[in-house]
Amino acid sequence: MIDKCKELAAYARSIRSRIIATVLLAVFCAGTVFAAATATYTVTVVDDGQVRSVITTRSDANAILEQAEVKVGADDKVDLSGFTSGEDSTITIYRAKNVTVSDGEAFTKSIVAAGTVADAVAKSGMTLKKSDVLNFSKDTPLKEGMSICVQVAFPVKVTADGKTTEIEVVGGTVEEAIRAAGVSMDKDDESTPAKDQPVTEGMQIRVDRVEYQLRTQTETIAFEKITEKSVSMYTDQRKVVQKGENGEKEVTYKDRYVNGKLVKTTVDSEKVLKEAVDQKTLVGTLRRVTKIKLKNGLTPISDLKVPSYVKLDQNGVPTKYKKIVDGKAAAYSGGWGTASGRKPMPGHIAVDPKQFPYGTEMWIVSSDGKYVYGYAIAADTGGFVQQKTFTVDLYMHSYEEACRWGARQVRIYVL
After folding, report:
1. What is the pTM of this model?
2. pLDDT tens-digit profile of 349-378?
3. CA distance 318 to 321
4. For residues 116 and 224, what is the distance between their CA atoms, to the nearest angstrom?
């Protein structure tokens, strides 16, 4: 009987243990569900650059901002790109700013905008093209009073190698536009307009491919013909005293090709292989004597006595003489002496001593046959020597006689 009671007591204890375990398990599970329902996470709120953290169980961004006591205005912008509900994440708020958007020319607009430079440009109504350039990067946050300038791209055309490419630029030089069109240029290539010129809207740029080629060839150097005067030959006589001979040279030319066409050739260098020999020809300066017919009954002007060895022909000119000089004679009178020491008088004449040394004897007549000056001796130096205007200057009896003579062509017989 006692054993039976012990078994009943043990059974009762086992039942109580199971009941207690079940109750404890139920309580533990209920606590776990409650804990899951009330989990928290951290949201970082970046408000116009100021950062705050919010520990929340809320899932809605607006509710989280309300919890953080952050108010958002009508023109403000809430960026939820970094927010994920239930996870540690970020809500970014851009506050509205007064900014100006301009293209630097016709368009200027003041607006209230929030976000980035790209947001402000979009709100201004201006459409950005890919080639337009901003003075700030597009993702730059807006600041109060910011002045945003859009450099509007304009079209230009670049033609090279038979192909025309249209591009859009905001400025710069022709060279920069060519590079932007994907066209490369060698050092000799040229552009129209020139590479350093500024580009303008609608400009048409042409690139010319320039190439230089050198070529060498042998050429003839033509001899020159040189003429020299000879006082021992008459004017109607000529004589080749040195025969001409052509030379030879090696010439290197530089050919300029533009877009494959030869447009210009210049001499790059020359090398003489054989010198040319000039041809020399002598031509006479002596005039053949033409006979002068003197008028009958002419009396010589000279007061000098004619030497006995001077014989005159029927025309009144010497039959024997060393040479004849045709020239021009002036006339003078007066004076107190001569360079040679002879006294001034008709017959003592002024000369160029280099042509007629003092003491040279002559017989002089006018070329027109109207005057016979007669026998004369070189006694003085003429004032005409420096100017080479006359051949001789004839002394006369008086000033009036000198004036009547004036300046005349004469023939001088050197005795």
Report:
1. 0.50
2. 999 999 999 999 999 999 999 999 999 999
3. 7
4. 85
Average pLDDT over residues 142-165: 94
Q: Give the burial class of 128: count Cβ atoms within 10 A of its Cβ; 0-12 exposed, 13-18 middle, 19 or more buried.
A: middle
Domain residue extents for the chain: 154-208, 212-286, 323-414
Q: Is 314 exposed, middle or buried (0-12, 13-18, 19+ CB in 10 A)?
A: exposed
The topology (CATH level 3) of 154-208 is: Ubiquitin-like (UB roll) (3.10.20)
Task: Give CA–CA dist 328/409, Å, rounded.
Answer: 4
Q: Say whether domain 323-414 belongs to CATH 2.40.40.10.
A: yes
Q: Does 193 sit behind a cis peptide bond, omega within 30 degrees of 0 on the bond before it?
A: yes
Residue 15 has pLDDT above 70, yes or no: no
Q: Which top CATH class is 212-286?
A: mainly beta
For residues 266-295, average pLDDT = 90
Mean pLDDT of 29-39: 47
